Structure formats: structure tokens, C-alpha cells
Amino acid sequence: LPTADLVPYVTEFGRWLAQRWSDDWTPEVVHGHYWVGGLAAAHAVRETDIPVVQTFHSLGVEQLRHLGGRYDGPGERIPLERALTRAVDIAVAQCNDEVDELTRMGLQRTSVAMVPTGVDTAQFHPDGEAAPRDQRARILSVGGLAAGHGQEDLIRAMRLVGDAELVIAGGPPAEQLADHAEARRLRELAERTGVADQVKLVGAVPHDQMATWYRSADVVACTPHYSSAGRVSLEAMACGVPVVGYAMGGIADAVVDEVTGKLVPPGDVRTLGVTLRRILADNAGRFAYGHAAVDRVRCSYTWERTAGALERLYERVIGRRKPAEPVVEVTRPVEVAADQRGPVEAA
């Protein structure tokens, strides 16, 4: 169902949760995900002292700023997200840009915690099979095909890259690409740009097969016009592949410029093409970037690290709401034996 169709049921779902918790089990903290999930959580705890932690994953006001007329979110989303920020105890941001956005929406900085997403390093790692490829250098892009995912920028940039292929993984299953409007639009753009023989759409790839596609690439390009988590860049880095990405959102946090890849100004197609060409020509540089990328993910972006940060955050908000211990009043003097009295220290 479209997200907008779920909104009328949020209050009822919140009441159902509250009833279930009162009859069966009561949580110490509730963690809402996405704006609709957060609204349900806020309704459920309205008449309790249960604290709410909220992860938006994306913010309508930020998407509107970056996507402009291509933003297709429901009209009530932005005002409801603003209202939700006033109902939660802590908001979890997944990147520094999101921290700034949440404070602009009215949250105190102390009520925003930065907890980046994690990567399953048992699944995404440099060792293992790679998807088949030809002799050309391979640039991999992972994401949707609709406007705003940045595939058009990459196709236009290919004119400046030289002899390389751009593989785009995402969208509908491969057998449905021929009838898919966005896939046709991208292929037509590649024809007009003169790079049709360099652009390959492979359709949706199951997540458990994505590591083989990352490992098949010389570089992964991350060029969405909005990205809060930067998941693709982190998965690619975990597989030892350097990333060229737009310096925004979670991508800017994950990719260390000139260390694990390259960051370019968002929307700058010329710089994007030149940067891709240079990194493909620099075998030693790609090798160094790839090794540094693996180290960065294993040190800072594992799911164990993310889970630990969230656990500490839950303890923090529970401690805020937990009632103070009752004061025990002494009704009669307590006798202290002479040999138990110690020296009186100055305050």
C-alpha cells in the first residue's frame, strides 16, 4: 500500500498497541521507524510514561529541498513529521545532515542522537565470487531508476569517462525492464548521449546476491539526489571497492575523500565524469582506497557497533523517565559504635 493510505489507520493501530501492552506486556522503551511507524508509537504511549525513540530514515522536508518538483510524498507528511518531533524523547539521525535538519525542525540538539546504519560484514566482504564481466572497466550504480536516484547524471557523465561500462542494478526484475517507463527513459537518454553501448541495466538484484556485484566493480558510483543512510556506499566499501559519490547525506559521512574514494559536488556531472575517469586509470589508488574502505567499515559501521549505540541510547531515555528512588526518612537517631566512627573529612 502507498504510505499515504496507511495514515488513516495510525490512530487505531496505536490504540491496539496500547491495549496489547497493558494486557500482556509493557515495553520499557518504544522505537518508531519511519514517520508512519513513529506516529503509531506516539499514539500508543500517549497515556503512559513509556519513552519513544524515533528514526525517520528520511525526512520529507529534506527530500523536498533536494528533489524539488520530483518529490512525490503525501502532502500531510511534512507537517506530521514536525508534530512527531515534539512527541518523541529522542530522534535518531543517520547522518550529520539529518542532525542539522532535525534541529531546524525544532528539536534541541541534546534530543538528537547520531547513530549511523550498519553493514553485515559477514555478507559484505572482499573475499568471494564476483558477478561475470568483460574486459572493460566497470562502474556499478545501485538504486532506483526514477528521477532523483541520480542515474541520469551517471549516464551523462559517461561521455567523459572513456572505455568503461556503467552497470545499473535496481528497478523492476530484468524481464520487466522492456516495459518499464523509467528504464526506457534511461535507455533513450543513453542513446541521445551516445553511450548506449556502455550502459547496462540489469534490473533488481536480490540483496543476498549484491556482494557479488559489488566485487565485480572497479568503482561504485553513488549519486542519488537525497540519501540519509548511505547504505550502498557502505556495502561497497565493505567489499573493498572504492566509492565515488555526491558529497551529501550519509555518503559524505561514510566516504572519506581521498582515503576510501572520492566525493564530488552534488549535481556536478562534469566533475563526476572526470573523477570517474581518473580513478579508473589509477590502479594503485583504487587498491589503496579499497583497503582503507574495508578498515573503515569494520571499525565504524558494523551492526554490532550500531546495536551497541542504540542499547546505550535506550538506557539513557529509560533513565530520564524512571521515577526517582523514594527517600527513606530516619525517624530516630542511629547509634554508631565508637570504634566504627571514622575521621570527619572537610567538605
Fourth CATH level, the homologous superfamily of the largest domain: Glycogen Phosphorylase B
- Give the number of DSSP strands: 10
Largest sheet: 6 strands, parallel
* Name of the CATH first level of the largest domain: Alpha Beta
Structure in words:
- This protein has 347 residues and is of the alpha/beta class.
- It has 2 domains: 3-117 and 302-321, Rossmann fold; 137-300, Rossmann fold.
- It contains 14 helices and 10 strands.
- The strands form 2 sheets. A 6-stranded parallel beta sheet has the order 7-6-5-8-9-10, with helices on both faces. Strands 1-2-3-4 form a 4-stranded parallel beta sheet, with helices on both faces.
- Helix 10 (231-238) links the parallel strand 8 and strand 9 (243-246).
- Helix 7 runs parallel beside helix 8 (181-193).
- The radius of gyration is 25 Å and the shape is globular.
- It starts with a helix and ends in a 26-residue tail after the last helix.
- The model is unreliable at 324-347 (pLDDT under 50).
Short description:
With 347 residues, the chain is an alpha/beta fold. The protein contains 14 helices and 10 strands.
